[in-house]
Design brief:
Strand content: 15-25%
Number of helices: 23
Largest sheet: 7 strands, mixed
Protein name: NAD-dependent formate dehydrogenase catalytic subunit /NAD-dependent formate dehydrogenase iron-sulfur protein
Shape: globular
GO molecular function, one term: 4 iron, 4 sulfur cluster binding
Distance between the termini: 35 Å
Structural class: alpha/beta
Family: In the C-terminal section; belongs to the prokaryotic molybdopterin-containing oxidoreductase family.
Strand order of the largest sheet: 5-4-18-17-16-6-7
Keywords: 4Fe-4S, Iron, Iron-sulfur, Metal-binding, Oxidoreductase, Repeat
Bound molecules: iron/sulfur cluster
Length: 702
């Protein structure tokens, strides 16, 4: 729409893509969103990136699911369904028929094999209320905790380390606090592409003279703004961080008063660090000893320092150890709990923070209350009026697919997740989806996962629904419907409630506000945050100390939420990647996102502008490596790991280290997760999607 005034109404809501949580104004004409503008939310102050600004028209795509679908008798499962024409394999059904069919299918498995034969994947793309209802349905309808979502593949290891050492899995400071910092580390993160609006604050910080230390095996565009760029060897993070901490301890640059007042286990940590002198670690991590020393001195000299990290840190078998190192680095320099200081894992999905807070994880009920705690079970049993809550932590994403293979799990309810694209080693995952006796998929498109389903329930997209979401900054924000869902598609909360009723649960919710009120009774993090307040103010940061308090941007200045109020140092040893390059697979494969595409591409590849900018599956390699292989940019290459093979066009990128391949994972025609390694971090149970041994061969020019 050229004339931005040419619209019927505008509705304030939240961008549906990344965890920054930009507030948007959706301009609507003839019941269609025609234009999007940033408004003055606490995280974005009017700014938007290309996805938030131009990535909205997928909601009008003719692939949208508009009626419930039931698989035709004998129709094969799998990717042979054209999302534009699902009626080759499915028939349309009424809502009553489809919901009865879905509930009966799941109930039959429960009654035949036991409740734990059915598990669930919820979604970080849905609202807090929908995530809460989903985990409640699995826990109370089936009596176990086998419920998870994509946080497992995102920051599960970061949360594991934060809960262990800080007592809380959320950020200790908003990313906007960088305005008050004078030094910052960004490690294993490419925010200019993945958290673009957050990156604008990082760039402004450097313009004011802030010292920005970027650490990544891949040179990203943020390094142009950095005072220090440490391009370490893939998998060299723990050795590099321990070496930096070694220098800080050895040279007496620690904040001893902070350590004495706010931490525990420092002496063990100090002893541990003696084994990591930079001169010994330089070869392992690929960073010269003097650079490690200089970086350590720079960070320690800052008056207020922040540490940001992304999936380059978390998606490793040593992901929890990586985060332990970052937490220790912040603690030893006194950089938690004051303005301009903090630990900030940049959350991926728009509501991955909120979905995790709402209990969509197998070891915790809402607000990270342990399923093993009898008092917690008593509290939730009383509120929910049930007596079947399990005290056994459930299986995680990768473990659930393994359990399908070995016959323990027979069916699933999958809401808004696309494991047939997003999970590691998707050949294994797709075999599991095919093997299930019954699968219910609830989504806005017939995704790769939905193509395996027995029944598909058509859901509303973000611009069509009411509900709250929580961003990476702990800001709970109100999403509002701007347009109606297409044809018979329904909001996810409504579908889950209707399924629950048919599974025998006594649910009477008629609006998301009732769900939010129930969450408020069980989740102290939501104290002072009410539905009406969010309707009036759009956003409140938790914790909010009073009905007037906009919320605490920085937390833990007066102690940590642990038994003794102290944060803990947990030493981390060097654990190599699970699969190292060898003669057969001599290079390193790493995966990630591009600016224009979101995760499995189900939305952005159906967004006209975004797909026009990045229409083709691609990978990037260092020009020197390409020359040595006789490969030109634009050639097709075959990438092969022990799990599979794909062909993809290659680009030259000096930022990618030699003998390394960077592969975005949004493209179904060359799905990166055909190749990735499902080896798990033992604590967070996150897969090592950032490191696999790969063979690269030229196929032909395009
Ligand atoms: Fe949306 Fe994230 Fe871009 Fe903001 S930075 S507009 S939340 S994708």
């Amino acid at each position: 729409v050229k004339d931005t005034q040419d619209y019927d109404r505008e509705v304030e809501s939240i961008c549906p893509f990344c965890g920054v949580g930009c507030q948007v104004s959706l301009r609507v004409k003839d019941d269609k969103v025609v234009y999007v503008e940033g408004i003055n939310g606490p995280a974005n102050e009017g700014r938007l990136c290309v996805k938030g600004r131009f990535g909205f028209d997928y909601i009008n795509h003719d692939h949208r699911l508009t009626k419930p679908l039931i698989r035709k008798e004998g129709a094969p499962k799998g990717l042979n369904v054209d999302p534009a024409n699902p009626l080759t394999h499915f028939r349309e059904a009424t809502w009553d028929e489809a919901l009865d069919y879905a509930a009966n299918g799941l109930a039959k498995l429960r009654d035949t094999y036991g409740g734990d034969a059915v598990s669930g994947f919820g979604s970080a793309k849905c609202t807090n209320e929908e995530a809460y209802l989903f985990q409640k349905l699995i826990r109370t309808g089936f009596g176990h905790n086998n419920v998870d979502h994509c946080t497992r593949l995102c920051h599960a290891s970061s949360v594991s380390a934060l809960l262990e050492n800080v007592g809380s899995g959320a950020v200790t400071a908003t990313f906007n606090e960088i305005e008050n910092a004078d030094v910052a580390i960004v490690i294993g993160s490419n925010p200019i592409e993945n958290h673009p609006v957050a990156a604008t604050y990082f760039k402004q910080f450097t313009k004011r003279g802030g010292k920005l230390i970027v650490m990544d095996p891949r040179g990203t565009s943020l390094s142009r703004f950095a005072t220090h760029m440490l391009q370490f060897k893939p998998g060299g993070d723990v050795s590099m961080l321990n070496a930096i901490m070694h220098v800080i301890a050895e040279e007496g640059l620690t904040d001893d008063a902070y350590i004495a007042k706010h931490t525990e286990n420092w002496e063990a940590m100090r002893e541990h660090l003696k084994a990591f002198p930079p001169e010994d670690m330089a070869e392992i991590c690929g960073i010269p000893a003097e650079t490690l020393r200089e970086t350590a001195r720079t960070f320690a000299a800052g008056k207020a320092g922040m540490i940001f990290w992304g999936m380059g840190i978390s998606q490793h078998v040593h992901g929890t150890d990586n985060s332990r190192c970052l937490i220790s680095l912040a603690l030893m320099t006194g950089n938690v709990g004051r303005s301009g200081t903090g630990l900030h894992p940049l959350r991926g999905q728009n509501n991955v923070q909120g979905a995790s807070d709402a209990g969509l994880i197998p070891m915790f009920l809402p607000d990270y209350k342990s399923v093993k705690d009898p008092a917690v079970l008593a509290e939730f049993s009383a509120e929910w009026g049930v007596d079947n809550l399990s005290d056994q932590p459930g299986l995680t994403v990768v473990e659930i697919m393994d359990a399908v293979h070995d016959g323990r799990i027979k069916g699933m309810y999958i809401l808004g997740e696309n494991p047939a694209m997003s999970d590691p080693d998707i050949t294994h995952v797709r075999e599991a989806l095919e093997r299930m006796e019954f699968l219910v998929s609830q989504d806005i498109f017939l995704t790769e996962t939905a193509s395996y389903a027995d029944v598909v329930l058509p859901a509303a997209a973000f611009a069509e629904k009411t509900g709250t979401v929580s961003n990476t900054n702990r800001q709970v924000q109100m999403g509002r419907p701007a347009v109606p869902p297409p044809d018979e598609a329904k909001e996810d909360w409504w579908i889950t409630v209707e399924l629950a009723k048919r599974l025998g649960l006594d649910w009477t919710y008629t609006h998301p506000s009732e769900v939010f009120a129930e969450m408020g009774r069980l989740m102290p993090s939501l104290n002072n945050i009410t539905w009406s307040r969010l309707e009036a103010q759009n956003a409140v940061t938790y914790p909010s100390l009073s009905p007037e308090d906009p919320g605490q941007a920085v937390v833990f200045g007066d102690g940590f939420p642990r038994a003794n109020k102290r944060a803990r140092f947990t030493p981390a040893a060097i654990l190599p990647p699970a699969e190292l390059p060898d003669a057969d697979y001599p290079m390193v494969l790493t995966t990630g996102r591009q600016l224009e595409h979101w995760h499995t591409g189900s939305m952005t590849r159906r967004a006209t502008v975004l797909d026009a900018i990045e229409p083709e599956a691609n990978c990037s390699m260092n020009p020197k490596t390409l020359r040595e292989m006789g490969v030109e940019p634009g050639d097709m290459v075959r990438l092969t790991t022990r799990r599979g093979s794909i062909e993809v066009m290659v680009r030259a990128d000096y930022g990618v280290a030699e003998n390394m391949v960077f592969l975005p994972f949004a493209y179904v025609e060359a799905a990166a997760n055909m190749l990735t390694n499902p080896a798990l971090d033992p604590y967070g149970k996150i897969a090592e999607m950032k490191f696999a041994a790969v063979k690269v061969e030229r196929t032909n020019s395009i």
